[in-house]
Amino acid sequence: MHRLKQFAQLWSLQTLLDLPDRLKNLWQQLIGSYWFIPSACVLAGILLAPILVTIDEHFDRETVRELSFAFTGDDEAARAIMTTIAGAVLGVAGTTFSITIAVLSMASSQFGPRLLRNFLTDTPNQFVLGAFIGTFSYSLLVLKAIHKYDVAFGVPQLAVTFGIIMAIICALLLVYFVQHMVHAIQASHVIEGASNEAIKNIHYWYKDRCNIKHQRDVVHQDVEQFHTWSATPIYAPSSGYLQQIYLKSLVTLSQDYAGVVQINANLGDFVTDRNIIGYFYQRPANHPENRQQTNTPKLAIVPRAPDSLFWQRFAGCIRIEQRLSHSNDIAYSLGQMTEIAVRALSPGINDPKTAVNCVQSLTSCLSIMMRRQPPSPYHFYRPSSEKSTSKQPAPDKTTSDNSIIEKVSHKPRDAILAVVTHTPKISDFIDASLGEIRGYATADLMVLKALCQALVDLNYAKVNNAQQQTLLHELTLIERAGQDNLSYQELVDDLSAMCQQAKQFILDDDAQHQYFAYVPKFDAHIRQTLQAQSR
Q1: Pairing between strand 416-421 and 259-263?
Q2: Sequence-distant contacts of 50-57: CB under 8 A, at least 24 apart
Q3: Which residues are bridge partners to 527 per DSSP?
Q4: What percent of the chain has a predicted confidence (pLDDT) above 70?
Q5: Are 141 and 43 in contact (CB under 8 A)?
Q6: Residue 111 phi/psi, 5° resolution?
Q7: Which of 54, 242, 404, 450 has a CB 3.0–4.6 Å from the CB of 356, allowing a cystine?
Q8: What are the backbone angles phi and psi of residue 179, rounded to the nearest 5°?
Q9: Which span out of 78-92, 135-149, 201-215, 221-235 was modeled with the highest average pLDDT?
């Protein structure tokens, strides 16, 4: 019933603007389920069997016998072959499923339960299982079409030949499945998959040219003044994780009620039905935008307070799930690599090299974010050309306020502020990823030095002083963590020396054109000694 309700919302008049995003989310949910691709393969096998049997009925048998690879045996041989194929692929499908369950169990203990989705949504794994059970379904239906006596139509030779080909393909897929699962359980492969997903989400949100033109061109001061308007709290329609915000539908809703919707919750945040996730700011009665004309003459947009229809439409503008699942949330993708690193640093696993690989992958993702323009928190309603060029009513000369409003309404307006969302800063992502790993790696010099090197690498991508201060602050925390938790003073001195060299490098104005290489004090002393002896 929940899925039917979601499907019904796709075709409501208020959500047609976001129909591509809603269909994309529905498709991701289908692909994310373990049953979709195998079920599609079973359906393909069920449809393919009667089609080939029908072709056999109208195909020349002599032509089939001329094909060297075609099956030309009698009904007993055909029945034996199809029975063998059906039994073999069903047994192999059971073995494949058992191997998958074993891999999921091992992945849950090594990488964390939240990484199981990456294994369940593995398309090659689903396709191999679907090919096995699809071949089984096809073999059963072809076996049913084989007649015992050669009457008007006897053995479906093309169908049996195709079944043999499918059996050979299934044997090759079994070899590929074993090789694929061996690579899938490797930590480097899991980290690479999580990194690619994070980079994909970063490209989705952080574009080369962000749409911030409206913030410069809009004449009115709503960006600074909308907080002074009458505010109505917005509660979450249900409890769960905020997975998606459909901005186009939300912009249309705020414009219909002549106000501004501010969403303070981030994607991935857990909310309850009593949480205030934002506010609806209603425009004042004398606001210039209330005089904007619509397609109907002398019909202006009048502010109105939120009613039951407003809350019903708002519930369709956001998507809340009971469990945290895949979405376009960058923090969720970065959190997967962070979880792998934290679990690798646990005493039960104790694999600091995996944690270092996670730090390096996180550095690559954060470097892309630092070089790109962050998404704008302000989203505007753009009136159509008909609305902006429609005939304005004559100015009302009775009051001075109306004349002022009419004068303002004649000014060309590019956009109207409609929705304000919360955009995390790069410092928030650094603290939630590298900072969390630092909290678990306080006694591991290898990981702490990898974090220090990561901040140096991020310095090559910095574009402003705020990012530079964030890197310096994180370096200070890394140095302090090593001083308080490392076992030997030599290790503390080594880490402190690297942090100091990294700080000097970051503070250098020409650092982005230089190469950073940490030189320990002991190596520097040996180098000076050798140089002195050579002289």
Answers
A1: parallel
A2: 50/141, 50/145, 52/142, 52/156, 52/158, 52/159, 52/162, 53/141, 53/142, 53/145, 53/156, 53/159, 55/158, 56/153, 56/156, 56/157, 56/158, 56/159, 57/153
A3: none
A4: 78
A5: no
A6: -105, -15
A7: 450
A8: -65, -40
A9: 78-92
Lateral strand order in the sheet of 276-282:
230-235, 276-282, 259-263, 416-421, 378-381
Confidence of residue 140 (pLDDT cuts 50, 70, 90): very high
Going by C-alpha positions, the residue among 452, 430, 473, 470 that lies closest to residue 518 is: 452
- CA atoms of 356 and 413, how far apart (whole Å): 52
- Ranges 3-12, 75-84, 161-170, 268-277: which has the least confidence: 3-12
Q: Which of 384, 392, 383 is nearest to 410 (CA)?
A: 392
Give the three-state DSSP class for 31: helix
The owner of tokens 């195909």 is 59
> Which tokens in the block code for residue 298?
């002398």
- Which one, of 296, 426, 411, 422, lies nearest residue 367 by Cα? 426
Any idea of the CA torsion for 506, 509, 513, 518, to the nearest 10 degrees? -30
Q: What is the DSSP-derived secondary structure letter of residue 375? A: P
Query: pLDDT value at position 350?
Result: 86
Q: Are 446 and 356 in contact (CB under 8 A)?
A: yes
Lowest mean pLDDT among 246-250, 295-299, 328-332: 295-299
List strands edge to edge, sheet with 318-321: 270-271, 240-245, 318-321
Give the DSSP H/E element, type plus range, for residue 132: helix 123-145
Report whether pLDDT(406) > 60: no
What's the CA gap between 468 and 359, in Å, rounded?
19
Please answer whether residues 197 and 115 qualify as being in contact, where contact means their C-beta atoms are separated by less than 8 angstroms.
no
Beta bridge partners of residue 262, listed in sequence order: 279, 420
Q: Are 269 and 241 in contact (CB under 8 A)?
A: yes
Tell me which H or E stretch contains 232: strand 230-235
- Count of other CB atoms within 10 angstroms of residue 157: 20
Closest CA to 483 of 473, 475, 491: 491
Which of the two residues, 30 and 60, has the higher pLDDT score? Answer: 30
Q: Centre a 10 Å sphere on the Cβ of residue 20 and count the other Cβ atoms it contains.
A: 9
By DSSP bridging, strand 259-263 and strand 276-282 are: antiparallel
Paired residues of 270 in beta bridges = 241
Closest CA to 194 of 82, 332, 97, 66: 332
CB 319 within 8 A of CB 263: no
Residue 421 has pLDDT above 50, yes or no: yes
Alpha-carbon torsion angle 22, 26, 27, 33, nearest 10: 160
Task: Residue 478: name the closest of 494, 490, 462, 467 by CA.
Answer: 494
